[in-house]
Amino acid sequence: xxxxxxxxxxxxxxxxxxxxxxxxxxxxxxxxxxxxxxxxxxxxxxxxxxxxxxxxxxxxxxxxxxxxxxxxxxxxxxxxxxxxxxxxxxxxxxxxxxxxxxxxxxxxxxxxxxxxxxxxxxxxxxxxxxxxxxxxxxxxxxxxxxxxxxxxxxxxxxxxxxxxxxxxxxxxxxxxxxxxxxxxxxxxxxxxxxxxxxxxxxxxxxxxxxxxxxxxxxxxxxxxxxxxxxxxxxxxxxxxxxxxxxxx
Length: 248
What we know:
Blueprint (H helix, E strand, L loop, with lengths): L1 H11 L8 H15 L5 E9 L11 E8 L2 H13 L3 H8 L3 E3 L12 H6 L4 E9 L2 E9 L7 H22 L4 H10 L4 H16 L3 H14 L4 H20 L2
Antiparallel strand pairs: 1-2, 1-5, 3-4, 4-5
InterPro entries: ANTAR, CheY-like_superfamily, GAF-like_dom_sf, GAF_ANTAR, WH-like_DNA-bd_sf
Pfam families: ANTAR
Protein name: GAF and ANTAR domain-containing protein
């Protein structure tokens, strides 16, 4: 059965000699996008619980790392994380599966609807699974509404999430110091970096935050990059320019 084959494939991704969480996440999302009927793209996210008072987004959780099989889905997720609205952040916040028949019929995430439609995230099923003090969310997404039978697909995604958590535990061979560095380097700082980049654009163009984020998104889509990567490049370029100007 295809479900068993896919679960085994995902479970084996952490066993490879060169396996890392980053590589495994990308491969898991690609495998699910290929194999799950009706799925246009898949998203696998590792979250860390940092306490209710200190998390910058997603309630008590921050992103450690993630893999998206399509850049548009990465853009949509980064918008979820920045605004703290959407099916993935709700799944990890409430620790329960979240299904979306058609995002245009939803009223749970008003700030996410427009971005979801632009990025082709019309329907989805997301399931959270615990991972050694962290959480893995596994989501299958489709460009068409009502692409998934919730009763059929939710158990499938639950199985994939469990195998993903097991594989990621095997793939996680960082030392504590290197792991903390990876956390800081990657999406744990997504919101702060994007906010900083938006501030730079707002100051330069005299626009509001929504327009600034839309510009980041356009650049990311045009170059097939994640919004966070575009934001980091802009912030780094701005800092370098400031340093150069200040030394004159």
